[in-house]
Amino acid sequence: MWCGCVAPATATTVLPEIASTQNAFKPLELSTFLPLVFSKHYNHNYVCTASLMFYFPTSTHKKFYLQEKAPIITPKNILFYTLATSKFLMNSINKQRCNQNPNATAQHLLHNQNGIYIQSLIVPQNTIIIGIGDLHGNLHTLASIIRKMQKKQLIDEQGIIKDNVRIVITGDVSDRGHFSLETWALLLMLFHKNPQKVIILQGNHENRQCFLQSSFYHELCRKYYHLNDQILNMISKSFQDLFSLLPQVVFIGAPNNNGIVDFLQFNHGGLPTNVNESFYTPIAHFLCTTTTSNPTYPTSYLVLPSYPKINGLIWNGYFADEQDIPFQINGFRISDTLSNPAQVTNYLQQLKQQNTTYCVSGIIRGHDHLQGGVNQLLRTIITEDVWIQNTLATQRITWEMVDHKESVKITLKDTDLSPVFTLTNSPLISGTDSFAAITFNADSDHNCWILTAYAYPREKYHNDGNNKDWLDADPLKKTTKSPHHQDKQPVQSYSYNCPK
């Protein structure tokens, strides 16, 4: 049975680097930190940027100053978690990397310009995958989702995730929110308890270049203003190294009733620009020989040492178009491109190639900040004048929102929708905290992955994060425009000195 290839993690599975040093230093635990989040920072959970305040003028200097000098995670704790997590990832990659590039090790990933890796794992049919989109420093979004999972008994009070549950964070954990530091702290605490069950993807905000220009870096400088440059630089470097050791693509597969392993692709952005055989052939070989034909380990890694870190997997996106010709167009970001549904279909079929042992059925991603939480790519014709006229209007006719508690098949057979799903977590943009629960339905009528969307209005939350309104919120209704979105004018920015 393919299910037997996954060694189930137990409640005692923790990072060995942390376990070996617990006698010398006892880190702050998730069970202590989570209540602290709700008690300390509930009234200051808003989207903004700590370095340049032109995104949302409602985020004033005064609001930032309310908490800038009172982080609820100490420098020693954050260093402990970042360094231990990086060491664990390096050891895992080196131990379980495939032999396609035998000389490519985790050390190659620490290069400034090049070096990424792809991860794959096979899970039992009863696995529940919780997909969480961009957090962007929204501490309470992550804390509230964890609390929700605790109420559903998917995570216990100590932070141990149930054996058949996996959590995938699609990248962009930091920046824009005031609580990037604390969001990372909470996420790493969860990873510490469950290193085989939590996957954190690298987004476009998880790279060295973006970090040094980001609000997260400025947040570190402000919150740890009392530290000397040497220690602050140590914390900064620990995050940069950690970012380099996060996967850009993860394939998670389950065996269907036909004996074929059905994979889903998780990545932050889109498809590579000018995706071609040189990209998908090594991946197809990796999925076939390493993961499917010889699943020695519960997870495997493909290191691509020469592949540029800044690429379409973390920057690109998608657009709706029902033409059968695969193609890409320029996007709305810096040098990004968008792929149409035909390009998606071609890509997923090319990944399969001639193999009969596996398939790749869909793509789960983040990156775009869309209404309502979870959206699926349409196959609608987009005219050129619409693209030029209004970016937000284009997004609305490109994506269809998946309603709260609505379940959708992830399949290439749908003629109206492409199997690409965007997960969004941005309370100001969408007014919701959301996630997707992805399960494998093995009955004869489905035999495929099923995605169920969960979206909870931000205003339903109470400061203990555990009230009935939050748990039983009414299903989110479709809207054409978020009531939170307004055309806003820039406000004055400010600057301060950080160590180089």
Descriptive report:
There is one protein chain. The protein contains 16 helices and 17 strands. The protein is α/β, with parallel strands linked by helices and 500 residues long. It has one domain: Purple Acid Phosphatase, chain A, domain 2 (4-Layer Sandwich), CATH 3.60.21. A hairpin with a 5-residue loop joins strand 5 and strand 6. The radius of gyration is 21 Å and the shape is globular.
Q: What are the salient characteristics of this protein?
A:
16 helices; disordered C terminus; 8-stranded mixed sheet; Purple Acid Phosphatase, chain A, domain 2; 6-stranded mixed sheet; 500 residues; disordered N terminus; alpha/beta
Low-confidence stretches: 1-22, 43-61, 459-500
Helix content estimate: 25-40%
Largest beta-sheet characterization: 8 strands, mixed
- Radius of gyration over alpha carbons? 21 Å
Estimate what percentage of residues fall within beta strands: 15-25%
Amino- and carboxy-terminal Cα gap: 53 Å
Structural class: alpha/beta
What is the third-level CATH name, the topology?
Purple Acid Phosphatase, chain A, domain 2
The CATH C-level name is Alpha Beta
Spatially, the strands of the biggest sheet line up as: 7-1-5-6-11-15-12-13
Q: How would you sum up the global shape?
A: globular
Task: Average the pLDDT over all residues and give the rounded result.
Answer: 79
CATH architecture tag:
4-Layer Sandwich
Q: Give the full name of the CATH homologous superfamily.
A: Metallo-dependent phosphatases
